[in-house]
Amino acid sequence: MRERKHADVAVVGAGIVGLAHAYALAKRGRKVVIFERSEPAVGASIRNFGLIWPVGQPAGVLRERALRSREIWLEIAPKTGLWCMASGSLHLAYRPDEREVLLEFLETTPDAQESCALLTPAEVARKSRVARQEGLLCGLWSSTELNVDPRQALRVIPQMLQQEYGVELRFGTAVNVITMPHIETPSEQWTVEQVLVCGGQDFETLYPEVFAASGITKCKLQMLRTVPQGAGWTLGPSLCAGLTLLHYDAFKHCSTRAELEERVNRELPFYVEQHIHVLLSQTALSELTIGDSHAYGLTHDPFEYEAINQAILDYLHSFAAGANFTIAERWHGIYPKLEGQADLIVQPEPGVTIVNGLSGAGMTLSFGLAEEVLARTRL
Ligand SMILES: Cc1cc2nc3c(=O)[nH]c(=O)nc-3n(C[C@H](O)[C@H](O)[C@H](O)COP(=O)(O)OP(=O)(O)OC[C@H]3O[C@@H](n4cnc5c(N)ncnc54)[C@H](O)[C@@H]3O)c2cc1C
What we know:
The protein is an alpha+beta fold. The chain has two domains: 143 residues, FAD/NAD(P)-binding domain, CATH 3.50.50; 164 residues, D-Amino Acid Oxidase, Chain A, domain 2 (2-Layer Sandwich), CATH 3.30.9. 33% of the residues lie in helices and 27% in strands. The chain contains eleven helices and 20 strands. The strands form three sheets. Strands 5, 6, 7, 13, 14, 15, 16, 17 and 18 form a nine-stranded mixed beta sheet that branches. Helix 1 runs parallel beside helix 6, helix 1 packs across helix 11 and helix 2 packs across helix 11. It is globular, with a radius of gyration of 21 Å. It binds flavin-adenine dinucleotide. The site of flavin-adenine dinucleotide has 44 residues, from helix 1, strand 2, strand 13, strand 18 and helix 11.
């Protein structure tokens, strides 16, 4: 006999999107159950940099969403003991075309002047022990970025949801079919009023026809991590350089980007082909996380390519120095990507909402998005 249970809302997937929605629901007093196939969840969320990166989001709805997410990360950090540094970020410019983009960004982006400033090399040196000084022209300081440890976050947030809000956790439980208002698992039958499907790159299990129609694809990224830097060592601001100005939509409106893009296409064709830009963040244990490349397609091979890792490290060394860059781990992650859209929110049948497609910004946007989704679906 299967046990029969009831919840107001079932969340499928305990990646950051599912956890953010469960948190928003639990705060509103809803009875929530989370089903997660793996134990622990080992999708995109545990594999990322742990960067909450509002500076990369374009002004308007997405930047507001990122800033709201930031507030919620700061709210949950003390509740969970999560390592969460208000590190800010530095975009470092070594070439005149990079400096031009930073200047234009500062002049033309609403509210950039409140949270950002252009720093001289000496000012950069005071903020960052790792930013390379040789050839540095300037750096864009932004105060809004947070650095969390994703492996810790994926562990402590479910614990907090269970202990503080009574959220039921069903790790090691795949949901293979939803027959509203029922969800059946091998050992239980649940009756629920609503379901949120937050399954990340798994398009195959639930509602595959919705994903096929959406045009969504998958992006594979290669990542590296160093050995710990030592007790008490901190990176300070998360770092990046010129290639990142071509990656994030926040810089898309800058007309000076064309000249930078033209030079990068000419000088760094392998980086362009592999869609490499390089970010540097840290973990709770003072390891440095380094990445990444981007390959697009519905199926990805399971292999990591050393030429890509080497290109990432070569570029890293062009703007970062003075830390122990001995590599201890290499891995890849995959996230869903929908060209030209920041998310995919669809109701495939009454009572079921799919929340997906957050691309490379799930840590940055999920908590803010969850509040919007709940308001929209009257949950
Ligand atoms: C390498 C890398 C670096 C990144 N860096 C950053 C960053 O620094 N900052 C940032 O903002 N974003 C970053 N991102 C993007 C971010 O990680 C993703 O947007 C985010 O993790 C997506 O979260 P998710 O919950 O949708 O997916 P996932 O974390 O993949 O979670 C989905 C979960 O659903 C479960 N699941 C699926 N189907 C079922 C089912 N039928 N039944 C039960 N469980 C199911 C899976 O097991 C999985 O655990 C990065 C991504 C990668 C890959």
